[in-house]
Amino acid sequence: MTIKHVTLSLLLALLTFGCQPDPAPPISDTAPATPPVKKDAKPVPKFDRDSAYAYVEQQVNFGPRVVNTEAHRQTRAWLVEKLNEFGAEVIEQEFVAKAFDGTQLQSTNIIARYAPELQDRILLAAHWDTRPWADSELEDDPSAVVNGADDGASGVGVLLEVARQLGLNTPDIGVDIVLLDAEDYGKSDGGSRNSYALGAQHYSKNIIQPKPRFGILLDMVGARDARFAVEGYSERYAPDVVRKVWRLADGMGYGSYFVNERGNAITDDHYYLNTMGGIPTIDIINLPNASDSPFPDHWHTGNDNMDVIDKRTLRAAGQVVLATVFREAAGTL
Protein backbone atom coordinates (compact mmCIF):
# COMPACT_ATOMS: atom_id res chain seq x y z
CA MET A 1 0.00 0.00 0.00
CA THR A 2 1.28 3.47 -0.75
CA ILE A 3 1.88 6.02 1.92
CA LYS A 4 -1.59 7.15 0.95
CA HIS A 5 -0.74 10.42 2.54
CA VAL A 6 -3.16 13.30 2.41
CA THR A 7 -1.62 16.20 0.49
CA LEU A 8 -3.09 19.67 0.36
CA SER A 9 -4.63 18.94 -2.99
CA LEU A 10 -6.07 15.69 -1.71
CA LEU A 11 -7.72 17.46 1.19
CA LEU A 12 -10.14 19.00 -1.31
CA ALA A 13 -11.15 15.51 -2.36
CA LEU A 14 -11.52 14.50 1.26
CA LEU A 15 -13.84 17.40 1.86
CA THR A 16 -15.92 16.19 -1.06
CA PHE A 17 -16.18 12.63 0.23
CA GLY A 18 -16.08 13.38 3.93
CA CYS A 19 -13.11 12.37 6.06
CA GLN A 20 -15.41 12.00 9.05
CA PRO A 21 -17.98 9.19 9.28
CA ASP A 22 -21.08 10.44 7.48
CA PRO A 23 -24.44 9.48 8.97
CA ALA A 24 -25.95 9.62 5.48
CA PRO A 25 -25.28 6.32 3.69
CA PRO A 26 -23.04 6.71 0.62
CA ILE A 27 -24.77 3.82 -1.14
CA SER A 28 -27.72 4.83 -3.25
CA ASP A 29 -31.08 3.12 -2.91
CA THR A 30 -31.22 2.82 -6.68
CA ALA A 31 -29.44 -0.28 -7.91
CA PRO A 32 -27.65 -0.20 -11.28
CA ALA A 33 -29.00 -2.31 -14.10
CA THR A 34 -27.93 -5.94 -13.98
CA PRO A 35 -27.34 -8.26 -16.93
CA PRO A 36 -29.88 -10.97 -17.69
CA VAL A 37 -29.77 -13.97 -15.37
CA LYS A 38 -27.93 -16.82 -17.07
CA LYS A 39 -29.17 -20.37 -17.04
CA ASP A 40 -27.02 -23.02 -15.40
CA ALA A 41 -25.02 -20.41 -13.51
CA LYS A 42 -22.30 -21.83 -11.31
CA PRO A 43 -22.72 -21.51 -7.53
CA VAL A 44 -20.35 -19.37 -5.49
CA PRO A 45 -17.60 -21.60 -4.08
CA LYS A 46 -16.61 -21.50 -0.43
CA PHE A 47 -13.57 -19.36 0.32
CA ASP A 48 -11.03 -21.31 2.40
CA ARG A 49 -9.68 -18.95 5.06
CA ASP A 50 -7.02 -21.43 6.22
CA SER A 51 -5.65 -21.64 2.70
CA ALA A 52 -5.53 -17.86 2.37
CA TYR A 53 -3.79 -17.57 5.74
CA ALA A 54 -1.14 -20.07 4.63
CA TYR A 55 -0.50 -18.00 1.48
CA VAL A 56 -0.05 -14.86 3.57
CA GLU A 57 2.32 -16.68 5.91
CA GLN A 58 4.42 -18.04 3.07
CA GLN A 59 4.99 -14.56 1.70
CA VAL A 60 6.05 -13.29 5.10
CA ASN A 61 8.43 -16.25 5.45
CA PHE A 62 10.30 -15.05 2.37
CA GLY A 63 11.06 -11.83 4.25
CA PRO A 64 10.27 -8.23 3.22
CA ARG A 65 9.48 -8.25 -0.51
CA VAL A 66 11.34 -5.03 -1.26
CA VAL A 67 12.06 -4.54 -4.95
CA ASN A 68 15.59 -5.55 -6.02
CA THR A 69 16.06 -7.97 -3.09
CA GLU A 70 16.45 -11.74 -3.05
CA ALA A 71 13.21 -12.11 -1.07
CA HIS A 72 11.44 -10.19 -3.82
CA ARG A 73 12.86 -12.48 -6.51
CA GLN A 74 11.97 -15.63 -4.56
CA THR A 75 8.44 -14.41 -3.97
CA ARG A 76 7.97 -13.63 -7.65
CA ALA A 77 8.98 -17.16 -8.62
CA TRP A 78 6.64 -18.66 -6.02
CA LEU A 79 3.68 -16.51 -7.07
CA VAL A 80 4.13 -17.43 -10.72
CA GLU A 81 4.43 -21.11 -9.79
CA LYS A 82 1.22 -21.04 -7.71
CA LEU A 83 -0.80 -19.23 -10.34
CA ASN A 84 0.34 -21.66 -13.01
CA GLU A 85 -0.59 -24.50 -10.66
CA PHE A 86 -4.07 -22.96 -10.32
CA GLY A 87 -4.64 -23.12 -14.07
CA ALA A 88 -4.20 -19.47 -15.03
CA GLU A 89 -2.60 -18.09 -18.15
CA VAL A 90 0.27 -16.24 -16.47
CA ILE A 91 2.01 -13.21 -17.93
CA GLU A 92 5.04 -11.61 -16.26
CA GLN A 93 4.91 -7.93 -17.18
CA GLU A 94 8.49 -6.85 -16.53
CA PHE A 95 9.48 -3.20 -16.36
CA VAL A 96 12.15 -0.97 -14.86
CA ALA A 97 10.78 1.89 -12.80
CA LYS A 98 12.82 4.85 -11.65
CA ALA A 99 12.14 5.55 -7.98
CA PHE A 100 11.98 9.02 -6.46
CA ASP A 101 15.60 8.60 -5.22
CA GLY A 102 16.88 7.49 -8.62
CA THR A 103 16.96 3.78 -7.81
CA GLN A 104 16.25 1.56 -10.80
CA LEU A 105 13.55 -0.85 -9.64
CA GLN A 106 13.55 -4.20 -11.44
CA SER A 107 9.82 -4.79 -11.25
CA THR A 108 7.22 -7.28 -12.43
CA ASN A 109 3.45 -7.14 -12.55
CA ILE A 110 2.19 -10.72 -12.41
CA ILE A 111 -1.00 -11.18 -14.43
CA ALA A 112 -3.08 -14.35 -14.12
CA ARG A 113 -5.88 -14.65 -16.68
CA TYR A 114 -8.86 -16.96 -16.43
CA ALA A 115 -10.97 -17.59 -19.55
CA PRO A 116 -8.72 -15.28 -21.60
CA GLU A 117 -10.91 -15.83 -24.65
CA LEU A 118 -13.87 -14.02 -23.07
CA GLN A 119 -14.46 -10.34 -23.81
CA ASP A 120 -16.39 -9.60 -20.62
CA ARG A 121 -13.77 -9.40 -17.85
CA ILE A 122 -13.29 -8.38 -14.22
CA LEU A 123 -10.02 -7.16 -12.73
CA LEU A 124 -8.88 -8.24 -9.24
CA ALA A 125 -5.68 -6.64 -7.95
CA ALA A 126 -3.32 -6.33 -4.99
CA HIS A 127 0.30 -5.24 -4.60
CA TRP A 128 2.93 -7.82 -3.70
CA ASP A 129 5.92 -5.67 -2.72
CA THR A 130 6.57 -4.22 0.75
CA ARG A 131 7.62 -0.88 2.19
CA PRO A 132 11.43 -0.59 2.44
CA TRP A 133 11.32 1.61 5.54
CA ALA A 134 9.39 1.67 8.82
CA ASP A 135 8.59 5.35 8.51
CA SER A 136 5.27 5.56 10.33
CA GLU A 137 5.12 8.21 13.03
CA LEU A 138 4.02 5.40 15.35
CA GLU A 139 7.30 3.52 14.87
CA ASP A 140 10.02 4.46 17.38
CA ASP A 141 12.65 2.25 15.75
CA PRO A 142 13.59 3.47 12.25
CA SER A 143 15.54 0.24 11.68
CA ALA A 144 12.44 -1.90 12.27
CA VAL A 145 11.70 -4.46 9.55
CA VAL A 146 8.37 -4.12 7.76
CA ASN A 147 7.24 -7.67 7.03
CA GLY A 148 4.10 -6.49 5.27
CA ALA A 149 1.81 -9.27 6.46
CA ASP A 150 -1.22 -7.01 6.12
CA ASP A 151 0.15 -4.30 3.84
CA GLY A 152 0.64 -6.38 0.76
CA ALA A 153 0.60 -10.05 1.71
CA SER A 154 -3.02 -10.17 2.92
CA GLY A 155 -4.47 -8.97 -0.39
CA VAL A 156 -2.21 -11.30 -2.35
CA GLY A 157 -3.08 -14.23 -0.07
CA VAL A 158 -6.78 -13.63 -0.61
CA LEU A 159 -6.33 -13.44 -4.37
CA LEU A 160 -4.27 -16.63 -4.44
CA GLU A 161 -7.15 -18.46 -2.78
CA VAL A 162 -9.56 -16.81 -5.23
CA ALA A 163 -7.28 -18.00 -8.05
CA ARG A 164 -7.32 -21.55 -6.68
CA GLN A 165 -11.11 -21.50 -6.61
CA LEU A 166 -11.30 -20.07 -10.13
CA GLY A 167 -9.12 -22.92 -11.35
CA LEU A 168 -11.59 -25.39 -9.86
CA ASN A 169 -14.82 -23.54 -10.67
CA THR A 170 -14.29 -21.17 -13.57
CA PRO A 171 -17.33 -18.89 -13.93
CA ASP A 172 -18.72 -17.73 -17.26
CA ILE A 173 -16.80 -14.47 -17.15
CA GLY A 174 -13.17 -13.55 -17.71
CA VAL A 175 -11.06 -12.69 -14.68
CA ASP A 176 -7.68 -10.97 -14.66
CA ILE A 177 -5.85 -11.25 -11.33
CA VAL A 178 -3.08 -8.64 -11.35
CA LEU A 179 -0.41 -8.64 -8.64
CA LEU A 180 1.10 -5.18 -8.89
CA ASP A 181 4.73 -4.44 -8.09
CA ALA A 182 6.66 -1.35 -6.94
CA GLU A 183 3.66 0.10 -5.12
CA ASP A 184 5.28 0.95 -1.82
CA TYR A 185 8.65 2.43 -2.85
CA GLY A 186 7.60 6.07 -2.64
CA LYS A 187 8.61 9.24 -0.86
CA SER A 188 6.52 9.99 2.20
CA ASP A 189 7.35 13.47 3.48
CA GLY A 190 6.64 16.02 0.79
CA GLY A 191 6.80 13.46 -1.98
CA SER A 192 4.62 13.29 -5.07
CA ARG A 193 1.73 10.84 -5.07
CA ASN A 194 3.16 9.60 -8.37
CA SER A 195 6.22 8.22 -6.58
CA TYR A 196 3.95 5.41 -5.42
CA ALA A 197 2.00 2.73 -7.30
CA LEU A 198 4.59 2.47 -10.07
CA GLY A 199 3.36 -0.97 -11.06
CA ALA A 200 -0.21 0.26 -11.34
CA GLN A 201 0.93 3.17 -13.47
CA HIS A 202 2.81 0.82 -15.80
CA TYR A 203 -0.08 -1.63 -16.03
CA SER A 204 -2.55 1.21 -16.71
CA LYS A 205 -0.48 2.23 -19.73
CA ASN A 206 -0.12 -1.37 -20.94
CA ILE A 207 -3.45 -3.06 -20.26
CA ILE A 208 -3.82 -6.44 -21.89
CA GLN A 209 -6.92 -6.39 -24.05
CA PRO A 210 -9.80 -6.80 -23.75
CA LYS A 211 -9.93 -4.25 -20.97
CA PRO A 212 -11.74 -5.41 -17.82
CA ARG A 213 -15.18 -3.88 -17.32
CA PHE A 214 -14.48 -3.01 -13.68
CA GLY A 215 -11.94 -3.77 -10.98
CA ILE A 216 -11.53 -4.51 -7.27
CA LEU A 217 -8.30 -3.70 -5.43
CA LEU A 218 -7.51 -5.40 -2.11
CA ASP A 219 -5.15 -3.62 0.28
CA MET A 220 -4.73 -4.40 3.98
CA VAL A 221 -7.57 -6.90 4.17
CA GLY A 222 -6.24 -9.23 6.85
CA ALA A 223 -6.23 -7.51 10.24
CA ARG A 224 -8.69 -8.46 12.98
CA ASP A 225 -11.67 -6.15 13.28
CA ALA A 226 -10.87 -4.50 9.94
CA ARG A 227 -13.17 -1.69 8.84
CA PHE A 228 -13.68 -1.40 5.09
CA ALA A 229 -15.27 2.03 4.82
CA VAL A 230 -16.22 3.30 1.35
CA GLU A 231 -12.98 4.85 0.11
CA GLY A 232 -13.31 8.25 -1.54
CA TYR A 233 -11.87 7.62 -5.00
CA SER A 234 -13.85 4.38 -5.22
CA GLU A 235 -17.04 6.34 -4.66
CA ARG A 236 -16.01 8.98 -7.20
CA TYR A 237 -14.90 6.74 -10.06
CA ALA A 238 -16.81 3.49 -9.52
CA PRO A 239 -19.99 4.23 -7.53
CA ASP A 240 -21.99 1.43 -9.15
CA VAL A 241 -19.35 -1.13 -8.18
CA VAL A 242 -19.30 0.23 -4.62
CA ARG A 243 -23.08 -0.17 -4.36
CA LYS A 244 -23.00 -3.72 -5.69
CA VAL A 245 -20.16 -4.93 -3.48
CA TRP A 246 -21.24 -3.27 -0.22
CA ARG A 247 -24.83 -4.41 -0.63
CA LEU A 248 -23.69 -7.93 -1.40
CA ALA A 249 -21.38 -7.95 1.63
CA ASP A 250 -24.15 -6.79 3.90
CA GLY A 251 -26.53 -9.41 2.55
CA MET A 252 -23.91 -12.09 3.18
CA GLY A 253 -23.53 -11.06 6.82
CA TYR A 254 -20.27 -9.15 6.46
CA GLY A 255 -21.68 -5.69 7.16
CA SER A 256 -19.50 -5.33 10.26
CA TYR A 257 -16.48 -5.34 7.93
CA PHE A 258 -17.96 -3.53 4.92
CA VAL A 259 -19.31 -0.59 6.87
CA ASN A 260 -21.78 1.71 5.17
CA GLU A 261 -19.78 4.88 5.85
CA ARG A 262 -17.56 7.18 3.86
CA GLY A 263 -13.82 6.89 4.39
CA ASN A 264 -10.87 8.98 3.27
CA ALA A 265 -9.82 9.28 -0.36
CA ILE A 266 -6.59 7.28 -0.65
CA THR A 267 -3.91 7.44 -3.32
CA ASP A 268 -3.60 3.72 -3.92
CA ASP A 269 -3.16 1.52 -6.99
CA HIS A 270 -6.82 1.94 -7.91
CA TYR A 271 -6.35 5.69 -8.35
CA TYR A 272 -4.23 5.00 -11.44
CA LEU A 273 -6.38 2.12 -12.67
CA ASN A 274 -9.23 4.65 -12.69
CA THR A 275 -7.51 7.80 -13.94
CA MET A 276 -4.89 6.34 -16.29
CA GLY A 277 -6.32 2.95 -17.16
CA GLY A 278 -9.97 3.90 -17.47
CA ILE A 279 -11.09 0.86 -15.46
CA PRO A 280 -13.72 1.76 -12.81
CA THR A 281 -12.03 0.25 -9.75
CA ILE A 282 -12.84 0.21 -6.06
CA ASP A 283 -10.42 -0.20 -3.16
CA ILE A 284 -11.34 -2.59 -0.35
CA ILE A 285 -9.00 -1.24 2.32
CA ASN A 286 -8.92 -1.13 6.11
CA LEU A 287 -9.68 2.45 7.17
CA PRO A 288 -10.29 2.27 10.93
CA ASN A 289 -9.75 5.99 11.56
CA ALA A 290 -11.61 8.90 9.99
CA SER A 291 -8.63 11.28 10.14
CA ASP A 292 -5.60 12.52 8.23
CA SER A 293 -3.90 9.25 9.28
CA PRO A 294 -6.70 6.76 8.63
CA PHE A 295 -4.65 3.56 8.64
CA PRO A 296 -4.26 0.86 11.29
CA ASP A 297 -1.52 1.28 13.87
CA HIS A 298 0.67 -1.46 12.38
CA TRP A 299 0.87 0.30 9.00
CA HIS A 300 4.50 0.88 7.93
CA THR A 301 5.83 -0.37 11.27
CA GLY A 302 7.67 -3.43 12.51
CA ASN A 303 4.36 -4.68 13.91
CA ASP A 304 2.97 -5.55 10.49
CA ASN A 305 3.54 -9.27 10.97
CA MET A 306 1.44 -12.41 11.24
CA ASP A 307 0.27 -11.42 14.73
CA VAL A 308 -2.14 -8.90 13.18
CA ILE A 309 -3.66 -11.33 10.67
CA ASP A 310 -7.11 -12.78 11.41
CA LYS A 311 -8.52 -15.62 9.30
CA ARG A 312 -12.04 -14.28 9.74
CA THR A 313 -11.11 -11.01 8.06
CA LEU A 314 -9.44 -12.84 5.19
CA ARG A 315 -12.61 -14.89 4.74
CA ALA A 316 -14.85 -11.81 4.77
CA ALA A 317 -12.85 -10.10 2.03
CA GLY A 318 -12.30 -13.25 -0.01
CA GLN A 319 -15.85 -14.59 0.15
CA VAL A 320 -17.28 -11.24 -0.93
CA VAL A 321 -14.85 -11.03 -3.86
CA LEU A 322 -15.67 -14.58 -4.96
CA ALA A 323 -19.38 -13.88 -4.67
CA THR A 324 -18.98 -10.70 -6.71
CA VAL A 325 -17.28 -12.58 -9.53
CA PHE A 326 -19.70 -15.52 -9.66
CA ARG A 327 -22.85 -13.47 -9.21
CA GLU A 328 -21.71 -10.98 -11.85
CA ALA A 329 -21.13 -13.92 -14.18
CA ALA A 330 -24.60 -15.27 -13.37
CA GLY A 331 -26.29 -11.91 -13.83
CA THR A 332 -27.60 -11.89 -10.26
CA LEU A 333 -25.48 -9.09 -8.76
TrEMBL record:
<dbReference type="InterPro" id="IPR040234">
    <property type="entry name" value="QC/QCL"/>
</dbReference>
<dbReference type="Pfam" id="PF04389">
    <property type="entry name" value="Peptidase_M28"/>
</dbReference>
<dbReference type="InterPro" id="IPR007484">
    <property type="entry name" value="Peptidase_M28"/>
</dbReference>
<feature type="signal peptide">
    <location>
        <begin position="1"/>
        <end position="24"/>
    </location>
</feature>
<protein>
    <recommendedName>
        <fullName>Peptidase M28 domain-containing protein</fullName>
    </recommendedName>
</protein>
<keyword id="KW-0808">Transferase</keyword>
<keyword id="KW-0732">Signal</keyword>
<feature type="domain" description="Peptidase M28">
    <location>
        <begin position="109"/>
        <end position="324"/>
    </location>
</feature>
<dbReference type="GO" id="GO:0008270">
    <property type="term" value="F:zinc ion binding"/>
</dbReference>
<dbReference type="GO" id="GO:0016603">
    <property type="term" value="F:glutaminyl-peptide cyclotransferase activity"/>
</dbReference>
<keyword id="KW-0012">Acyltransferase</keyword>
